[in-house]
């Protein structure tokens, strides 16, 4: 884990900005990790009106942590559609404690907290880049989650780094050679087929060097879900899909969660490609 963090893109510790008043009501909460490994900071945004489900929001590898979701309207759209939202800080971000083990354990802790607060409602995950990546091992070993929305998720973080940060390729090769079991575990193509979701959608940008369109198609083709879709946003770079096609991305997420809940066979969304579901 120490070597993995050393090879990850460096980020300064950042004091998160205050949550905008326009997003009230909200509640700052602490999420307890297993085995006495400290706590993670999170924010609870209750649904507007009668709730129909709850969504765990998992941020990308950016210094803002969960504050990333203060922009682009994801939380507002979820609440208006009847979903509670829990935005989680991964270990090392915001006020969360230091990392202990890989970040899939943080996702597990977040899902436990969401289940406790959601009171029997359907649970969903919306992960962006690294957030969606770390959700895959967890979704491959749990049946708690109904639907998942993934934005800009690489099949393997070192494959992403190999293309985006070529100067560190000797280090990535060293990790792959000397830590083979860890390298295999980090390949989420090995976990995707074990997922058992009602619906899942993968979105990425046409111009993303780290998450190529063929990577998104391949990962979606492996994922275990009854309803599977993927969408490549023209002209978008990494983390750019929400900027170029924000309304479409949010619409896809809400439709994915509804599909997961309703189990509507044969539903087709405009502008999307059907992907045959494969279970593990």
Walk me through the topology.
Elements: H1 2-7, E1 27-32, E2 39-45, E3 53-58, H2 74-80, E4 83-88, H3 104-118, E5 123-128, H4 130-139, E6 145-151, H5 157-164, H6 169-178, H7 180-185, H8 189-192, E7 197-205, H9 213-222, E8 225-233, H10 241-244, H11 246-262, E9 273-274
Parallel strand pairs: 3-4, 3-5, 5-6, 6-7, 7-8
Antiparallel strand pairs: 1-2, 2-4, 8-9
Helix pairs in contact: 3-4
Structural features, described:
With 280 residues, this protein is of the alpha/beta class. The protein has 11 helices and 9 strands. 35% of the residues lie in helices and 21% in strands. Helix 3 crosses helix 4 (130-139). It starts with a helix and ends in a 6-residue tail after the last strand.
The number of distinct β-strands equals 9
List the secondary-structure elements in sequence, H or E: HEEEHEHEHEHHHHEHEHHE
Indicate the structural class.
alpha/beta
Treating each run of at least 4 consecutive H or I residues as one helix, how many helices? 11
* N/C terminus separation: 27 Å
Shape: globular
Oligomer: single chain
Largest sheet: 9 strands, mixed
Task: From the alpha carbons, calculate the radius of gyration and give it in angstroms.
Answer: 18 Å
Task: Kindly report the average pLDDT value.
Answer: 91
Low-confidence segments:
264-280
Helix content: 25-40%
Residue share in β-strands = 15-25%
**Strand line-up in the sheet with most strands:** 1-2-4-3-5-6-7-8-9
What structural keywords apply?
280 residues; alpha/beta; 9-stranded mixed sheet; 11 helices; 9 strands; 35% helix
